[in-house]
Design brief:
- By secondary structure, this protein is an alpha/beta fold.
- It is built from 16 helices and 12 strands.
- The strands form 2 sheets. Strands 1-7-6-5-4-2-3 form a 7-stranded mixed sheet, sandwiched between helices. The protein has a 5-stranded mixed sheet with strand order 8-9-12-11-10.
- Helix 1 packs antiparallel against helix 3 and helix 14 crosses helix 16.
- It is globular.
Length: about 425
């Protein structure tokens, strides 16, 4: 499937039915799988054979969908998780332990920032958050001897800051660590971070990949490019024997292409159980089949909306990286020349009170704690998704008190603009 275009991959990658088999990916709604002998099952537990024995670790439906996402990103191995939060946690925890350190962009989704700065800090893993627009020298200074990874978002949620991935990749590799990129907003239709030096990609599949607000989910994709064996002391979990599996060394048994995802599956999924249900994986695949059609429409609608609000007298400012003149337009053209995402942020003159009046006046768009699905929705991040952050942390994340995040759907764009117009008249 690597030779096919993205649109074809959205429909066919990850599952090829045989003669007389279901044309759609089957829903394998079973917790367990039957084997004819203890020896056959034992080989699975020893990682000596491929197969399934308990859906908490792996399930055929989930694996087919993960393989599709892997193909879309151009990776070598992938896995699904129960949420995007679980995907980001696994991506870091798979190579970090208590006492380790991570460099991360400060412009992150509020839930991710809290996961890193609070919860994982309690686990003994520390993070240094850097300005995504920092100089190479400032970025280099953030690294410590115990740094194990660098993390960022292709397009920051909700600040819409476009990360200079090549700059961050070069810094990560100079210090012998991988670059992990959350590619949720851009999706592989808009950007494939592996082409720009990223080593691991995560997704909240809850967003554009599902596309219809049907199911929460996440994904992790490995490029297979990072050579863990060059740094065995830095990544012992991948390069030294795992006694819980009779001394298997993941890089030796599964190679660079499969070691990282295999370890995340057989260790982290085994112990944390953040697995998606087969039904959710099936629904995710239904969304993926139209991802290549929906994303261009999201982007086209968002650009028209951005142009409209930019010229409205009641709008103080607007951010959209696909809008010519935007601070991140040049980076967006470099990394995502065919479109960025469907999210536009702006401020209504009059501050938070005016923003609340505007949002309450919307009729087509819904006020919802969601983003990036087929229907237009709106949110005030400072009082919701980023509520736990301090004023300083909000500023570092690019979230001002008056910021409104409008997730532009795929309705007729004139109806979206008409809704915005009548709501602004009430301000």
């Amino acid at each position: 499937m690597r030779d096919y275009q993205k649109g074809t991959q959205c429909l066919h990658a990850g599952y090829v039915p045989g003669s007389g088999e279901p044309r759609n990916i089957p829903i394998v709604q079973s917790t367990t799988f039957r084997y004819s002998s203890s020896e056959a099952m034992g080989a699975l537990f020893d990682l000596e054979a491929e197969g399934y024995f308990y859906t908490r670790l792996q399930n055929p439906t989930s694996d087919h969908v993960a393989a599709k996402i892997c193909a879309l990103e151009g990776g070598t191995a992938a896995m699904l998780t129960s949420s995007g939060q679980a995907a980001n946690f696994f991506a870091i925890f798979n190579i970090c332990s208590a006492g380790d350190h991570v460099v991360a962009s400060a412009a992150l989704y509020g839930g991710t920032f809290n996961l890193f700065a609070v919860t994982m800090k309690r686990m003994g893993i520390t993070f240094t958050f850097v300005d995504p627009n920092c100089s190479k020298e400032e970025l280099d200074a953030a690294f410590q001897p115990n740094t194990k990874a660098v993390f960022g978002e292709t397009i920051a949620n909700p600040a819409l800051i476009v990360l200079d991935m090549e700059k961050f990749a070069q810094a990560a590799h100079a210090h012998g660590v991988p670059l992990i990129i959350d590619n949720t907003f851009a999706t592989p239709v808009g950007c494939r971070p592996f082409q720009w030096g990223a080593d691991i990609v995560t997704h909240s599949t809850t967003k554009y990949m599902d596309g219809h607000a049907n199911c929460v989910g996440g994904a992790i994709v490995d490029s297979g490019n990072f050579d863990w064996t060059k740094y065995p002391d830095k990544f012992p979990g991948l390069c030294t024997p795992d006694e819980s599996y009779h001394g298997v060394t993941y890089t030796e048994r599964f190679g660079l292409e499969g070691a990282y995802i295999t370890k995340a599956t057989v260790q982290l999924m085994r112990d944390f159980g953040a697995s998606p249900s087969p039904m959710n994986a099936y629904l995710l695949n239904v969304g993926l089949e139209t991802l290549h059609l929906r994303m261009p429409q999201h982007c086209a609608n968002a650009l028209k909306v951005a142009e409209y609000v930019q010229n409205h007298p009641k709008i103080a400012w607007v951010n959209y990286p696909g809008l010519e003149g935007d601070k991140y337009y040049a980076l967006a053209q470099k990394y995502m020349p065919n479109g960025t995402c469907g999210v536009v942020t702006f401020g209504v003159k009059g501050g938070q009170k005016a923003a609340e009046t505007f949002m309450a006046g919307l009729q087509l768009a819904s006020i919802a704690t969601h983003v990036a699905d087929a229907k237009t929705c709106v949110l005030h991040p400072a009082s919701s998704t980023h509520r736990q952050l301090t004023e300083e942390e909000l500023a570092a994340a690019g979230v001002s008190p008056d910021l409104i995040r409008l997730s532009v759907g795929i309705e007729d764009v004139q109806d979206i603009i008409t809704d915005l117009e009548q709501a602004l008249e009430q301000v």
